[in-house]
Design goal:
Length: 704
């Protein structure tokens, strides 16, 4: 807004105004009066205005035609120069007294800066509105794309489920067809071999007999047999005489050759027996080399074990090939070669082929069934492995089949948790039968320990079952020195130790398993996960969850007796089912073990979960200067948890002081173990049964 620069006027300008070269402006009344005199002088600054264009009368609201034509035809730089001078005039006009502004240039600069900032702000505001509009349009577009993609993903998931269902059905049909094919193939091979044996026997008894036409190994009929020197047109007497002569000659030949043939067969049988014995010794030596590897090598050589076993297998196969005089088609020979190829921990297709032929030639060869089942296990075909081990037991009860069947039962796919639990129980029974057959077999004890471990994690975590698992592992090491070099035993026992919160034993077990099999990544991964968990937990406990003093004081100040819930009003039921009156105790006053008849109440400072989701761990504190204890909760559903600031009451807490040292690192803290979230009272409320779930552990198919 422009005002008349005449000191006594200062009216708002409109219509026409007089503008001077000294950047002052006056209303039409004072301008026409003041500038009619000669010489003309500016009333505001007394500057002389002698030039032709020093005084101009201008229209403040020009017409559109004037705006369109006033600068038309001028070059852009001239237009910009004129515009900048016009803006300079405008910014020179302050809202205050012009006479004062003339004597205070600093105020003029401030006013000009303010006008520039207002102009910049208006431009930025316009640009912001435009950007908000564009952003809103893009956001709506992306929302529509996201909705479309979600719909597409949902439809693709449905299609995937349908394909999975079809794949499962086709797999089952294929397995059924394969079983039928194997039965037919076995029947065909059996009949073919029987027919060959009968044909060889008849050929030995009737050397002059002509070959008979056959289909699939069966003769079509009784073909006429004639002597090579006799034709059908000979007389009856001549034919009969010739026939009797031939028969007598054949009888004499059989009588002369009978003893010689018997001797040759005896020699062949003895040679085959010796050859099979040499093959068996070679295969036994190969497996002894693998199972007793660390008796002749240090643990530092564990990384070379697989390569050394592979090289030993190749040497064994070369020695087996060098043994001559054996029939390649004999089932026992095929079984030994397939067993030699099966010595490694990886699946071998040639071993599967040889062992499949062996069981077809001799369905009662139990060792071949056991080896073939192990091949299927390594291949990942658990159902086929189960069929092999069950089939071997149907021919003869043996500890190897019982051991393997115990392993397979826990890995079979089931349609319900109850069915899986039943398989686990059956797995324990099979392992017990294997131990009963040979109490000195370390592998049977090890498999029994694994069965108890699976039973422990699937049926309520009974401490007696965990002790049975540990006892079975200890017995395996006692009766079989090679068990101490079994990385799977150390891994499984360490897993149980971790669940029992024997952290130092768990770390040592994981480290030992990793050292025995460096190529197996799982032991090292589990050890590192446990180390990370202990390090994070110790740091949070020491810093009290990094909660500042004022906030901690405020949290503790909100603790109320009502937060004890049933633990504070005498309605708490102990393990025996009787109501017990609990006495509130501070964390610092707790004793190691079960603190019977007491209850603690504190605030949650932090929570911590592992990749396995079990246990749920949080920090609990009940005083500003007191300690912060770790609370580990087991058997909860994944959706359960407590939040920072929650009040938690724990009746009859079980306290344990942990002192852990491993690889130059030490961790010391106190922890309270809670077997189920149902015993906790959170913010005065008892936890419902829907918050409890059976604890589970991740398990991968691994040779036991």
């Amino acid at each position: 807004m422009l005002l008349c620069n005449y000191r006594k006027c200062r009216v708002k300008l409109s219509g026409y105004a007089w503008v001077t070269a000294c950047s002052h402006i006056f209303c039409d009344q004072h301008g026409s009066g003041e500038f009619s005199r000669s010489p003309a002088v500016c009333p505001a600054c007394t500057s002389a205005l002698s030039g032709k264009l020093d005084i101009v009368r201008t229209e403040l609201s020009p017409s559109e035609e004037y705006k369109a034509m006033v600068l038309a035809g001028l070059r852009p730089e001239i237009i910009l120069d004129i515009s900048s001078r016009a803006l300079a005039f405008w910014t020179y006009q302050p809202p205050t007294d012009t006479s004062l502004m003339a004597h205070n240039p600093q105020d003029v600069k401030v006013h000009q800066e303010r006008l520039y900032q207002e102009y910049t702000y208006s431009k930025a505001e316009g640009h912001l509105k435009q950007m908000e509009k564009v952003y809103t349009q893009q956001l709506q577009s992306k929302d529509m794309e996201l909705t479309s993609m979600k719909s597409e993903v949902s439809s693709l998931k449905k299609v995937l489920e349908e394909y999975k269902k079809k794949f499962t059905e086709l797999s089952e049909k294929l397995m059924e067809r394969n079983r039928q094919y194997q039965k037919l193939q076995g029947l065909y091979d059996s009949l073919r071999l029987r027919n060959i044996a009968v044909a060889n026997q008849e050929a030995g008894q009737e050397p002059a007999m002509m070959p008979q036409p056959a289909v699939f190994g069966f003769p079509l009929g009784n073909a006429a047999r004639f002597s090579r020197n006799t034709t059908p047109i000979q007389g009856r007497h001549e034919a009969s005489t010739s026939l009797r002569a031939c028969k007598n000659e054949r009888a004499r030949e059989r009588a002369g050759k009978g003893g010689e043939a018997t001797a040759i067969m005896a020699e062949d049988e003895e040679e085959n027996s010796q050859g099979r014995q040499r093959l068996q010794e070679l295969v036994d030596h190969l497996y002894h080399f693998r199972d007793h590897y660390f008796e002749n090598h240090s643990v530092e050589d564990a990384g070379k074990k697989r390569q050394d076993v592979q090289e030993e297998m190749e040497k064994t196969l070369q020695k087996m090939e060098a043994i001559g005089g054996l029939s390649e088609g004999r089932a026992y020979t095929l079984m030994l070669k397939g067993k030699a190829l099966n010595v490694s921990t990886d699946y071998n297709a040639q071993s599967e082929e040889l062992l499949s032929k062996a069981v077809k030639l001799d369905p009662e060869l139990v060792e071949a069934w056991n080896q073939l089942g192990e091949v299927y296990w390594k291949k990942g075909d658990v159902s086929a492995a189960h069929t092999c081990f069950s089939g071997a037991l149907s021919h003869r009860k043996n500890k190897v089949s019982l051991q393997n069947l115990s392993m397979v039962l826990r890995q079979l796919r089931t349609s319900s948790p109850d069915e899986h639990a039943q398989n686990v129980m059956d797995s324990v029974r099979q392992a017990k039968l294997a131990v009963q057959m040979d109490v000195r077999d370390g592998r049977s004890w090890y498999v029994l320990g694994n069965a108890y471990l699976s039973l422990f994690f699937n049926t309520g975590q009974n401490p007696k079952i965990s002790q049975q698992a540990l006892s079975a592992y200890a017995q395996a090491e006692k009766v079989d020195p090679t068990a101490t070099c079994n990385p799977d035993l150390h891994l499984n026992r360490a897993t149980l130790s971790k669940y029992e919160e024997n952290y130092m034993e768990a770390l040592e077990g994981f480290a030992h398993a990793a050292a025995l099999d460096p190529a197996w990544p799982e032991p090292q991964q589990r050890k590192q996960q446990l180390m990370d968990f202990l390090e994070r937990l110790s740091g949070l406990l020491e810093n009290k969850g990094k909660v500042k003093g004022k906030k901690l004081q405020s949290m503790l100040g909100s603790l109320q007796t009502s937060h004890l819930g049933p633990c504070g009003d005498g309605h708490y039921q102990g393990p025996s089912g009787q109501k017990v009156e609990l006495r509130r105790q501070s964390l610092s006053a707790l004793q190691p073990g079960v603190n019977t008849g007491t209850v603690i109440l504190g605030k949650v400072l932090f929570s911590l979960t592992t990749e396995e989701k079990v246990p749920f761990t949080f920090g609990l504190v009940d005083s500003l200067e007191g300690p912060c204890f770790a609370v580990t909760v087991y058997n909860m559903v994944q959706s359960w948890g407590v939040l920072i600031g929650d009040s938690v009451a724990i009746p009859e807490p079980y306290l344990r002081h942990h002192h852990i040292q491993h690889q130059n690192k030490s961790f010391t803290f106190s922890g309270i173990r809670v077997e189920t979230p149902l015993v906790l009272v959170v913010n005065g409320k008892v936890q419902g049964s829907q918050n409890q779930a059976a604890a589970t552990i991740a398990y991968q198919a691994q040779s036991e």
